[in-house]
Specification:
The protein has helices at residues 6-21, 27-35. It is an all-alpha fold.
């Protein structure tokens, strides 16, 4: 795997394994996995840098004079 931190890669691996296991377990176990938070996927992504700013949200210092 490339890019992303250790936590993100571990979460992606955990999600992939739990998704693969869904085909081999009964629906009751799938419900337990869902309640444990193993099936949900975190869709948050890095916000892009905007032009005219120092970063995604940070602005350059504004000086009146």
């Amino acid at each position: 795997m490339e890019n992303g931190g250790e936590t993100g890669q571990a979460g992606a691996t955990r999600w992939g394994i739990s998704t693969a296991l869904r085909a081999f377990v009964d629906p009751a176990m799938v419900e337990q996995m869902r309640l444990a938070g193993l099936i949900s996927f975190d869709v948050r992504r890095r916000e892009r840098k905007k032009p005219g700013q120092a970063g995604a949200r940070k602005k350059y210092t504004w000086k009146k004079r």
